[in-house]
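User: Can you help me understand a structure? I only have the sequence.
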Amino acid sequence: MNVLLLGALAVASLVFFLLLGQRPPAAAGEVVPGAVVSQPFGCTTLELEPPDPACPSGHFHSGLDLAAPTGTPVLAPAGGVVVGAGEAGSCGIHVLLDHGGGVATLYCHLAQALVGPGQPVFAGEQLGRVGATGLATGPHLHFEVHLEGRPVDPAAWLRQLPVNPNQLGGK
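Assistant: Let's start by predicting it. Here is the structure, written out as tokens:
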């Protein structure tokens, strides 16, 4: 195929998605397009975080905070099934996904959840919108990854996703 034809097909695909009110599938590991990491995973001096005697700083941040404007789409980085969605305590409006194999992801402080319990999702599917609900100091997504119930570094987990992140579970 020539380059002109490939370009025309790419534009046609994008127009098709835009007309349907959908977005093209996300790249593996994309969670909040255009976000900036405002708080990494691990030991922190931030006193809002739970105390942890194992941390020299005295506190531990169990997720990755991704700062973005209110309303920015929050996307599933991998396929899975929604096992929780609602509003609870410091997490605020949230979504919990089960990806199978002992992997679960949690999305906190949403302005709005767009999925519900029992719903299967694909990688790149919109789960909600960035907000500042619960115990949040500004609009951001608090993103956690749990392996067998224990928090692991979300940035490291995202880097190791397969080329087709829907292989983890989902629809």
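Now, to help you interpret it: Helices lie at 3-19, 154-159. The chain has one domain: 26-168. Let me know which part you'd like to focus on.
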